[in-house]
Amino acid sequence: MRAHPRRQAWRNRAATTAAVLVAAAxxxxxxxxxxxxxxxxxxxxxxxxWQGGFxxxxxxxxxxxxxxxxxxxxxxxxxxxxxxxxxxxxxQEADKVTAKNLEWNGKLATGASTSVGFNGSWSGSNPKPTDxxxxxxxxxxxxxxxxxxxxxxxxxxxxxxxxxxAAVPLAATASDDGAVSKxxxxxxGTLVGTDTSAPYSHSATGLSSGxxxxxxxxxxxxxxxxxxxxxxxxxxxxxxxNPSIVASSASVSVPEGGSKTVGYKLSQAPSGNVTVNLTKxxxxxxxxxxxxxxxxxxxxxxxxxxTVSAAEDSDESNGTATIAAAATGHTGVSVxxxxxxxxxxxxxxxxxxxxxxxxxxxxxxxxxxxxxxxEPGGDAVANISTGVWLDRIAAIAGSSSxxxxxxxxxxxxxxxxxxxxxPLTIQIVIYNLPNRDCSALASNGELLxxxxxxxxxxxxxxxxxxxxxxxxxxxxxxxxxxxxxxxLPNLVTNLNVAKCQEAKDSGAYVNGVxxxxxxxxxxxxxxxxxDAAHHGWIGWDTNFGPxxxxxxxxxxxxxxxxxxxxxxxxxxxxxxxxxxxxxxISTTVNGQTVRQSRWLDWNFYVDELSxxxxxxxxxxxxxxxxxxxMLIDTSRNGWGGTARPTKPSTSNNVDTFVDESxxxxxxxxxxxxxxxxxxxxxxxxxNPAPGLDAYVWIKPPGESDGSSKFIPNDxxxxxxxxxxxxxxxxxxxxxNKSGALPxxxxxxxxxxxxxxxxxxxxxxxxQ
Length: 767
Prior knowledge:
Structural class: alpha+beta
GO molecular function, one term: hydrolase activity, hydrolyzing O-glycosyl compounds
Protein name: Glucanase
Shape: globular
Largest sheet: 9 strands, mixed
Radius of gyration: 28 Å
Number of strands: 41
Keywords: Carbohydrate metabolism, Cellulose degradation, Disulfide bond, Glycosidase, Hydrolase, Polysaccharide degradation, Signal
EC number: 3.2.1.-
Oligomer: single chain
Family: Belongs to the glycosyl hydrolase family 6.
CATH topology of the largest domain: TIM Barrel
Helix content: 10-25%
CATH class of the largest domain: Alpha Beta
Number of domains: 4
Strand content: 25-35%
C-alpha cells in the first residue's frame, strides 16, 4: 500500500458574512499624459460583529484594464481601529486605512477578484466604509443596503426547568451591519424586558408554573428600522418539587461491539456541587463509563456524556439494562439500554445498510500490519483496520512489493470468512484527481488537467476500480470509499494557486468527484464518504458555509443526487485533536473569548468532534439526507504523552491559557507534516458519538506525510518545506517552525521514527 496525503490549504482567518456592501463600478477620469491602466473597480465589504470587535472580509473586483499591483483605500467613520489583517499589507493612519497587495495577488485581470480581510475594534457603532478606492481612484456606487440584524437566545437553555418564584435569566447575542439599537425579550409573546447595550439580558420574574417559550427580537439603527426575531426556546417553571436529573434520551440502542452516549445535566442551577451516581442493572454485556458525574453552579446545564458499551457475545438475543442516575436532593432518572445483537441477524448479502461500520469487523491490511508488528510494541495495534490508498493508476494492479485492489479484496474475503457471522468493512481511498492536492507539493499526483488528466482519471482510474469492486464475489464485503482527499475545499480557499484555479475553471475536480460517485455508489455494497477537510481549514465562516455549498452543488449534479453520498470524513491524515477537554469555544479568559487567542485565531471550533457534528448539520441544511454520517480519522490525533495537559491553565492571559490548556501540542494548527509529539488517537469504533458513523484510521500510522528533503521518485511527489524540520514557516502558519520530524521518506513510505513516536504518545494509551 502506498501513497498518502498531507494537510495543506489552511485558511488562517475568519470573516463571517453578516451583510454585504457593494460599491458599484467607478470610472477613472481621463488623464492625458499617463500610461497607467484605466481603473474601474467594485468592492464588497462584509463584517461579523461582536461587542467591541469585528472581522471584515473585503473582495476587490477589477472591472477595468488588467492591474499589476493595487492599493485599496477607505475611511473609518466611527473611530474603528485596525488590529491585524491578512492577504495584504495593512496600514491605518488616523481614520484612513490602506491595504497593499502581496506578491501573489497583485495581478488582477479584467473581471478577476481577490479577497482580503482584517480584524478590528469599535465602540459605539461600526458603520461600514463608503469611500473605497483602488490606486487612488474611487469605486463609486450606491450607499449600502441596510440588512436586518441577527439575534439568538443564549439563555434560558432549551428544555431547562426553573424553580417557581425564581427569576428566569434571559440573554441574547445580536449583531448588525450597522448597530443594534435594542433587544426585546418576550415570554409567550408578551414583552417582559428591553436592553439597549450588549451583553443583552433581562431577568424575567413572576412567571407562572408550567411550560413557557422565550424569544428575543433585535432592532437596528437604520432608516427604516429593521428587526429580526430569534427562534423560540422552551422552558419550564416548576412547582415546589425537587430539582431533577435530566437525561438526553429515555432509551438508547447500542450495537453489539459498539457504543453510544447518553447526556446528563441538571434541571436547575445548584447552590453547591452535585454528584450524580450512575448504576447499571441487567445484561452484563452492557457497561457504562464513567459511573459518576459532578455538576456545579457553572456547568449544571451542560450535558456530560456517559458512554454505554455493548460487548461482543455469542447469543442471538438483544440484552437490556437499566441505567439509574441519582443525586442527593434531586429526582433521579432512568434510561433503558438495549443491545443490538448481530449474531444470526446479519443483513442480506450486498444490502446497502445505513452505517457500514455498525456491527462489522474491519479489514486488516497485512502489509501495514507486518510493518507495525515489527516495531517495538507495535503488535499491540498491528491488527487495527487502516485505509488502503489507491494514489495512482499503477496502485490498482499493484506490484511485486505492493498489493493491488483485487489482492486486498481477496484478502478481505479470507478475513470475512474467519470472523463468523459478522460483515467485514474494508476502506479504500480514492485519490488521483488531475492536479491532485493542487496547493501542495509533497503529495502531488501523476495526472494533470492540461494533459487530458480528467479523461484519464475516468477511464484509466475510476472505471477499473469500479469494475473490480462490482465483481459478484465481493458482494458480501462492505467497501467504504473515501473520495478525494483535499480536493473540493481547495476550490474554496486556494484559488490564488494556479493549479487550483485551473481545477475550478475547468471543472475537473467537480466533474471528477461526480464521476467517481456515479460509478462507485451504483454498486450496492460500496459506500461513499467525501473528504471534508478539518476544523483548522474550514472552521471559519468564510470557509464553512461555502464549502458546504460546494459539496451540495457538486453532489446534486450526480445521477442520484444526494442519494449518491453516505457521508463525509474529516481530519483525514491530519492531527487535529478529537476533543479539547479543558476549554470550549465559549470559554472566556479575563473577559476575552478563546477565539481571540493566537491558536484559534477566531476559528469557531476548538476540536474536530465539535466541527464534524456542526458541519454535518450544515450539510443537512443544504439538502443532504438527514441520515448522513460523519467519519473522523483518529489515527494520529491522540496527543498523549508527558506533554499532554491534565487540567486547564490558571493564566489570565488568553494566549497563555489556551497554549497551556490545549492537548493539541503542534506549534501551529496549520502544521500538517510528520508532526513531532503526535500520538495514536481513539481506536476505530462504530457509533462513537451523535452523528458519527465511526472513528476510523484512514491514514496508516507510520506512513510518511512527505520527505524532509527532496528525494527523486517516479510517483510525482515533490518536496514541501513544511516537511523540513528546519523550515521557519510561512504566512499560513504565522512563521512558526514546521514541527516535522527529521529524516522522513516520501509520502506513503514507512517511517519507523514516526510510528514509534505515535505509539509512545498514544491517547488513549496503548495497553
